[in-house]
Amino acid sequence: MTLPDTMHAYVLHHHGDMDALQLHTDWPVPVPDADEVLIRIGACGLNNTDVNTRVGWYSKAVTDATSGDGFASVDEEDPSWGGAPLTFPRIQGADAVGEVVAVGANADPDLIGKRVMIDCWLRDWSDPMNRDKTGYFGSECDGGFAQFTKVDRRNVHPVQSDMSDAELATFSCSYSTAEGMLGRAGVGAGDVVLVAGASGGVGSALIQLAKRRGATVVALASPAKHDQMAGLWADALLPRAPENLKAALRAAIGRDTVSVVADIVGGPYFEQIIDVLERGGRYTCSGAIAGPVVPLDLRTLYLRDLTFTGSTVITPDIFPALVQYIERGEVKPLLAATYPLAELKTAQQAFIDKAHVGNIVVTP
User: Residues in domain Enoyl reductase (ER) (predicted)?
Assistant: First the structure.
């Protein structure tokens, strides 16, 4: 197969607003190293990390909710998820699906021609459980907002599915993040899980994966989105921020407490969702789109024997398991919209506006 020397790619040149992203039509096609494979991208999903990294929201100097605009107060020493400076220029995009078209010397040549999903977490494969030696695809290396990408051979997973590339591109970041959260919280049969921000990619994944584990699920989302969420198997759908959450829970499921809160929202509603955790309950968090700085009464934490877990870097077993869930039909995609790569800025603005349910995807 003859491969081109250049490609179309959307490239992030610095932290800032949408102008930090530039479309290039003559970007070099990457050349895989010995342990890497080259992938022709079929689709790549959007996620909060793309926006947060672009604007520098991860910096501790920023205390506001996530935003598509740049922040004047970004500290250039800690603007990425890992707390380190980012190398520019950078092609973002973590949720890449495509076909392997070339392999390095140490990669299996049988991968050529296979449709694959990419595990977003970059690891030191001599020490794969070490969270301090991890990176993120589209952050610490170039990602999938392009026609081609390369990645370590151990990060690619062939997938057998009738789903389109765009549908498969809804899974990688959102569902692996959700599964990591549920695992950290030890969710199982008999649990009652409250999902905040349930209409987004991670939220809708939390519903499906918690139900897969046998839990009862209560989802918080804008009522305007409830009809679109009806097929996600939640046991109850409540407004995004009920004025009296305990009363709303009692009316919906016959009890006013839950055993687990799975939160990607944070912000001003934090106190209310913590207040409905039962004694011995668990709170797990992997985002704070409504604001990262929240009030916490430590008496609530220790007098009610609560457990709080943060969840970012997943264990290496999660992604292969997710591919199996997909192949067995145990989870389903929630594709909100598809945009051509050339309209990435429009797609990202739609993502930021949060009027959608599920995931937004770009296709080159």
Answer: 16-362
- Give CA–CA dist 7/149, Å, rounded: 10
Q: How far apart are CA 106 and CA 208, in angstroms?
A: 37
Asked whether 361 and 166 are in contact (CB, 8 A), the reply is yes
**For the segment 7-35, what is each residue's pLDDT rounded down to a tens digit?**
999 999 999 999 999 999 999 999 999 99
How far apart, in whole angstroms, are the C-alpha atoms of residue 116 and residue 36? 13
Rounded Cα gap, residues 202 and 179, in angstroms: 9
Helices (H), the chain: 48-55, 165-168, 172-184, 201-212, 226-229, 245-253, 270-275, 298-303, 318-328, 344-353
Q: What is the CATH number of domain 6-170+333-363?
A: 3.90.180.10
pTM over 0.85: yes
Tokens of 324: 């199996």
Q: Domain 178-310: give its CATH architecture.
A: 3-Layer(aba) Sandwich (3.40)
